[in-house]
Specification:
five-stranded parallel β-sheet; about 35% helix
Length: about 500
């Protein structure tokens, strides 16, 4: 009888978990190796004094992609996780202190937009008609789950991309439809959700509002970590092995072929290795330079990493009615904010914030009458040279003051029972993230599709990548699609 092939997956973020499930379901014996105490990666969980926090992703879109993963393992998502649709998807506070409750209902959004510009409201339908084309190409026709391994694959997509204006930056695409700066923000900020600049990310990302509109925005009861735990359970139930608290020190390469991994005191052999860890760090630190013809240190140093963020996890003995489950607070200057983060690389004076208040949907996330709150503030990555050990305390105070003053969250500071802070240094040290990036490799045109690190290593046979740093990119749906693209490479290479 033929022996089952062995696969090793390095890193248990959504990408690693997803690849591990896929390969185990395909008949490999998979070992998933994770450096941290628990699985989840950026989707980690913090529990303290009765408060539960999702530390990273909070917003679920395109649940059908998650369902697809569970069903290929013979499982049903709804048997593991209870998803609840959110309405509004998020509340957006603009710099004039007013807000729009954003959802997928055209008439609702148009009537709120009309308060600022009737002309813009009238352009809503045309915008959605056009971004549907982008959605159809990426999701319905499957380009997001298709590995772009050759120039040919890129050239084949080019005519369609030109027609869809997919090479325009997201902001420019949006500005063709809307005049008012608030509306331009509302339909162009989505690259910031995955760490990219709306002025540099190609307009394929403009399809996110369409993805939200047709698929909804969802919350997993118990938090995003319920989905992480569900994926870990599925993987174990179908026979997979998880080893946490285990850092991979090297990828073993023989004659240009990945043969396994080196741990502190152990070598694990495998027929293929799938990497979910941050790609620049993997190439630089885990693979001997003699095997790297394409991904040399010099080339890696030229990669643009995404921005980072500061996160405050606050357990507060009080609830705040001005917040929805997801609330975005836009600073006064959208373009200047993006310039501060990506070009000037300074802590923005007029920073924007994203707040997650899951207690609005699930009271079990905090003690009765309390709020489990996270505040995310986009900041530059560590290339900026910002010394967060020095800056974090005054910055935290500034954020709390801003919430009290600008958002009217009176008594916030006096009612904080739990406060934990996560900085770009934590992304670097806890997640092995290059330059403390929060969202992997930046989504910009020359780092997309064929130009992004491929799902199959160009340098080493039987080495694959999955997760936000490879095609198609960041965000939970993107990362799950990347595991589908990686899967296709492995199926081809192993004649499955
Ligand atoms: C604050 C924040 C909020 C977000 N919000 C959303 C959201 O609401 N919705 C959404 O869709 N997306 C969101 N995202 C994006 C989304 O979370 C990520 O794109 C996704 O979780 C990344 O998954 P991944 O599998 O690529 O990598 P990761 O989650 O980073 O996993 C990589 C894993 O590799 C491990 N590792 C690294 N080096 C080694 C090694 N040498 N040995 C062993 N293990 C190693 C790391 O510890 C880590 O666990 C958010 C991201 C952040 C940071």
């Amino acid at each position: 009888m033929e022996q089952r092939k062995k696969a090793i997956v390095i890193g248990a973020g959504f990408g690693g978990l997803s690849s591990a499930i896929r390969l185990q379901a395909k008949g490999f014996d998979v070992t998933l190796v994770e450096k941290r105490e628990q699985v989840g990666g950026r989707a980690y969980q913090l529990k303290k004094e009765g408060y539960t926090f999702d530390m990273g992703p909070s917003l679920i879109t395109a649940p059908f992609i998650i369902e697809r993963l569970f069903s290929l393992a013979g499982k049903k998502l709804s048997d593991y996780v209870e998803l609840e649709s959110l309405d509004p998807y998020y509340r957006i506070y603009f710099s004039d202190g007013k807000y729009i409750d954003y959802n997928g209902n055209a008439e609702n959004i148009k009537s709120q937009m009309a308060c600022y510009s009737q002309r813009d409201a009238d352009r809503y339908d045309a915008f959605f008609k056009d971004i549907k084309g982008v959605y159809d190409a990426i999701i319905t026709d499957g380009l997001g789950a298709q590995p772009f391994m050759s120039w040919g694959s890129m050239l084949k997509f080019a005519p369609q991309a030109i027609k869809l204006k997919a090479f325009l930056p997201v902001y420019s695409f949006t500005a063709q439809y809307f005049k008012h700066e608030f509306h331009r923000f509302m339909f162009s900020f989505h690259p910031l959700f995955i760490g990219g600049s709306p002025w540099k990310a190609p307009s394929v990302y403009v399809m996110i509002p369409y993805l939200e509109k047709v698929g909804g925005v969802w919350f997993a009861k118990g938090g995003m970590y319920s989905l992480v735990k569900a994926m870990e359970s599925v993987f174990k139930e179908i026979g997979g092995t998880v080893r946490t608290h285990t850092e991979v020190k090297k990828i073993v390469v023989e004659d240009g072929v990945a043969r396994g991994i080196e741990l502190e005191n152990e070598v694990l052999k495998a027929d293929c290795v799938v990497c979910n860890a941050d790609i620049p760090i993997v190439y630089k630190n885990l693979i001997d330079s003699k095997w790297r013809k394409k991904w040399t240190d010099k080339r890696i140093d030229k990669i643009h990493m995404t921005m980072s963020c500061v996160l405050l996890y606050l357990g507060v003995k009080k609830q705040f009615p001005q917040l929805k489950h997801h609330t975005i607070v836009l600073g006064s200057e959208y373009k200047e904010l993006v310039k501060d983060i990506f070009d000037r690389q300074i802590i923005p004076e007029e920073f924007s914030m994203y707040l997650h208040a899951p207690t609005k949907s699930d009271s079990n996330m905090a003690p009765k009458g309390c709020e489990s709150l996270y505040v995310l503030i986009p900041v530059p990555n560590l290339k900026s040279g910002i010394d967060w050990k020095k800056e974090i305390e005054p910055f935290t105070n500034k954020v709390l003051d801003r919430l009290e003053e600008k958002m009217g969250m009176e008594g916030l500071k006096d009612n904080i029972e739990v406060m934990e802070v996560f900085t770009p240094d934590d992304f670097k040290n806890k997640l092995n993230s290059h330059l403390g990036n929060a969202f992997a490799i930046e989504p910009r045109l020359m780092q997309s599709a064929y130009f992004r690190p491929h799902n199959r290593s160009e340098d080493i046979e039987r080495l694959y990548f999955v997760g936000a740093g490879t095609h198609p990119g960041g965000g939970v749906p993107g990362v799950l699609l990347s595991s589908e693209a990686t899967d296709k490479c492995i199926v081809e290479d192993f004649n499955l």
